[in-house]
Amino acid sequence: MKTVYSPRHRLHVDNQELNAGVITPAFELPARVDFILKRIAAIGLGDVIEATPVDAVAAAAKVHDASYLQFMADFWSLWLAEGRTSPTMPYVWPARGQHDIRPEHVNGLMGYYSFDGGGSFVEGTWQAVQSAVWSAVGAAELINGGEKAAYALCRPPGHHAGSSTMGGYCFINNAAVAAQWFLDHGARRVSILDVDYHHGNGTQEIFYRRDDVQTVDLHADTRFAYPFFSGRADEVGEGKGEGFALNLPMPFGTAWDVWGASLDEACRAIEVFGPDVVIVSLGLDTFEGDPISKFKLKREDYPKIGARIARLGRPTLFVQEGGYAVEDIGHNAVGVLSGFEGN
Questions:
Q1: The CATH number of the domain where 180 resides is what?
Q2: CA triplet 107, 112, 117: central angle to 5 degrees?
Q3: How many other CB atoms sit within 10 Å of the CB of residue 7?
Q4: pLDDT for the residue numbered 244
Q5: What is the DSSP letter of 241?
Q6: Which of 18, 20, 107, 237 could bond to 242 as cystine, CB 3.0-4.6 Å?
Q7: Of the residues 9, 12, 159, 160, which is catalytic?
Q8: 8/50 Cα distance (integer angstroms)
Q9: How many domains does the chain have?
Q10: 160 among known catalytic residues
């Protein structure tokens, strides 16, 4: 299986986050990519291709609001104009019942275009964000060119990014961009299977009223787990999209027996939908050693995930999302990919 990635991801470094009321260095680190690439090389998974630049804004504008993309493009110059150079994150957000007012000051804009304190900017963030889109589109092109599967090693990740909101380390929704790209290049239906520990709230929001993209999401019960405000089992889509969103929340402590059964249920729903291509939002924070998650999957479970997805028999694009047990992420990510390949 071929991997597409961009070394420009490293421009997003020394980012911070607001986590449970405390500002800390972000768990989402450049080293995540290093460990994955090292493992790809160690087992000879396949060629690693540097992503070719594409018009990331044009691709993202198919699923994100233009004003939101412009804000991210302008952010660092606005920040410098305030005499600031340090990493930053949002700190104020509109609340329920307030008017939908777009502020003019950069601090207000950060809150307007975010849902949490995880959308941390540094000088190179926007360049890295665009390069993640390059990886997603480049891997999609490989599949359209006849590859059975491809891996977009995207960083920053994307599944929490909504049509006009950033958060959870995510700025542009790479999986959503790829889904729309496939539709624009001949696909009739696309399924997005999100196996990250956290609900892909951004992906669901983008496609919630559409019937050409199915969203299927396995995640921790959001009554108790981030992102808290979406991902319930009764969220099934609206309007044309009714019936095309499936959420499979699970309790803290979930291990393979329950998680694997949910994956079977998810795959059966995908088979009924009959997509032309499957996109897997590949989060590895289901791992028992993940520092910010509470599931109990073991290293030997990850090849089983890939093998089950392979049984769908569809062209498959894997898009990297979460996973913060950094020294284990290479084994777990490549475990899924090699399991898909039958190795």
A1: 3.40.800.20
A2: 70
A3: 13
A4: 98
A5: G
A6: 237
A7: 160
A8: 10
A9: 1
A10: yes
